[in-house]
Amino acid sequence: MEKLRTLAANALPSLLFFALVLCAWHGAVVLFAIKPFLLPGPLRIASAVAANLPRLLSATLLTAMGALLGFALSFAFGFLVSLLFSQSRLIERSLYPYAIFLQTVPIVAVAPLIVLWIGYGLQGVVAVSFIISLFPIIANTTTGLTAVDPNLLDLFALNNANRWQVLFKLRVPSAVPHMLTGVRISSGLSVIGAVVGEFFAGYGTEDFGLGYLIILTNGQAKTDYLFACILFCTLLGLGIFTAVGTLSNFLLKRWTGTPE
Amino acid sequence: MVAGLVVAQDIEKRFATGVEALSGVDLSVERGQFVSIVGPSGCGKSTFLRLVAGLDEPTGGALTVDGRTPREARRDLLDLAFVFQDPTLLPWRSVEDNIALPLELRGETDPDRVAHVLDMVGLADFAAAYPAQLSGGMRMRASIARALATRPELLLLDEPFGALDEITRQRLNEELLCLWQQDRWTGLFITHNVYEAVFLSQRILVMSARPGHILAAIEVPFAHPRDPDLRATPEFVQIAETISRQLGEAGA
Fold first, then answer.
1. DSSP H helical ranges for chain B
2. Burial of A167 by CB count in 10 Å (0-12 exposed, 13-18 middle, 19+ buried)?
3. What is the C-alpha separation between B124 and A30, in angstroms, rounded?
4. In B, which residues are within 8 Å of A174 by CB distance?
């Protein structure tokens, strides 16, 4: 009960602000008679959501799937690459510049190419999401695996620990906080990647994600529907962010000393 | 002279950077003795301890542990344990699992021993707690328990109480001495705190400023068990002052 009250106290100001913005928005749209195809009011958007809810939900689900698959791939692949980097300075020095290259190349510019190679549909979307969310995993996990307390390395050496014991009993667990930082950044990027992927990879007329729906509604000047798509993109991002945040708080309980 | 467990002859350590940390260190630590090395900060006393542990190699001189090079001694599992300046516990492991770590790395399990050392350092009630939930003094106790878990013959302590407040430090000194009396491992203790050294040790080696070498060896005659009130006796204060004076001359 006490918890609920503090939660309410924390959330109330931001919720009030949100309501205030909605009112101002609505007021401005009515007052200045803004054309709905330029800026629809909140009520119009709400009715667009209501009218297209099944479509929006299925599109969100598909985009979420693309993002999650892309993220899962980049986590698995990025983790393996980082393990490799942590085991050999030579490998790290030879390959790390390309990981940075991957990060700096504007993914939106390359996305059409990726789709051309990988193909339309889910695999193209997953590929774009994967590439865009890979680097933060590699960068943070590698840092975590290599930035181990030297005293702990000494402790393991003193007990004649072998390479695998050092890797799995020391380096990997001590990299967890860094890894979670990477995961937080990557999970957000994977949604962006999936939406961008869908701009180009589409899905065809039957099944499509939010990215495709955005292009479609934009082309048809259904601005209220477009806003509804943006709203669902945001909710998806928020959902993933919250899930990852909760998971990482749970995993880091031991580090912070919160009782379990 | 009886051959010591740790024998150093003319040890020199020069780092790749050109810094000469140690020069002409001669010492011998007998089995079952508690010996402290005191010296000004940066004199190379921690470096010396790392050499004894085989974590680093001397660049000159001969250093043996139980008649072998430190690395050989460690490989043959001569039980040697190290207590660091920081508790160096693994934050993702409970106190109990932290203490079991050295055993685990050797492929052994010994829950009774873990429970015993936990009890010895007074952390039996905190077996399941995580390091972040403990106070600084409790973390250091856990660190000492971890070192004792493998029943070490040689315990190397590198300023373990340096970061603790004075009251906690004194209490842990008393506890450490008690633990030593129970098992009589060989202790080599590094500190820059003279009172701590006198209270704990049978012999104190005073190290010079860098490049470090041994300036003096002082026998501490007090019998065991030592009472906490010993610290207030004139004899205690006199020995401490002698050492402080020598440290002052050493350029502390």
1. 45-52, 70-75, 95-105, 111-120, 136-148, 166-183, 194-200, 234-249
2. middle
3. 70
4. 90-92
Q: Which residues, listed in sequence order, are joined to residue B216 by a DSSP beta bridge?
A: B206
Q: Is B217 in the A-facing interface, judged by CB distances under 8 Å?
A: no
Strands B154-158 and B80-83: parallel
Yes or no, beta carbons of A160 and B77 under 8 Å apart: yes
- Cis before B225? omega within 30: yes
Between CA B117 and CA B19 the distance in angstroms is 40
Rounded (10°) angle between helices B136-148 and B111-120: 140
- The answer to whether A254 contacts B55, with C-beta atoms less than 8 Å apart, is no
Please indicate whether, in this complex, the C-beta atoms of A160 and B80 are within 8 angstroms of each other: no
ipTM of this complex prediction, to 2 decimal places: 0.89
A 122-161 → B contacts, CB under 8 A: 149, 151-152, 154-161
**What predicted TM-score, i.e. pTM, was given to this entire model?**
0.84
Picking from A151, A154, A255, the nearest residue to B92 by CB comes out as A255
Contact between chains at A158 and B55 (C-beta distance less than 8 A):
yes
Chain A residue with CA closest to B152: the answer is: A159
Kindly report the number of other CB atoms within 10 A of residue A218's CB atom.
13
CA pair distance A4, A1, nearest whole angstrom: 5
- What is the residue-level pLDDT of chain B in tens, covering all 252 positions? 457 889 888 888 989 898 888 888 889 999 999 999 998 887 888 999 999 998 999 999 889 888 888 888 877 766 789 999 999 999 999 999 999 999 999 888 899 999 999 988 889 999 999 999 999 999 999 999 999 898 888 999 999 998 888 888 898 899 899 889 888 899 999 998 999 999 999 999 999 888 888 888 888 888 888 888 888 899 989 999 999 998 888 765
- Angle CA(B4)–CA(B5)–CA(B11) in degrees, nearest 5? 80
Of B82, B92, B93, the CB nearest to A158: B82
State which residue of chain B sits closest to A252, comparing Cα positions: B92
Euclidean distance between CA atoms A78 and A132, whole angstroms: 12
User: On the CB side of B61, how many CA atoms lie within 13 Å of its CA?
Assistant: 22
Q: Any idea how long chain B is?
A: 252
Interface membership of B147 toward A (CB under 8 Å): no
Which of B93, B97, B105, B106 to probe by mutation at the A interface, max A CB count within 10 Å? B105
- Radius of gyration of chain B from Cα atoms? 18
Cα–Cα distance for residue pair B94/B78, rounded to 1 Å: 27
d(CA B115, CA B111): 6
Put simply, whether A220 touches B (Cβ < 8 Å) is no
Q: Which two structure tokens, joined as six digits, stand for A243?
A: 């899930």
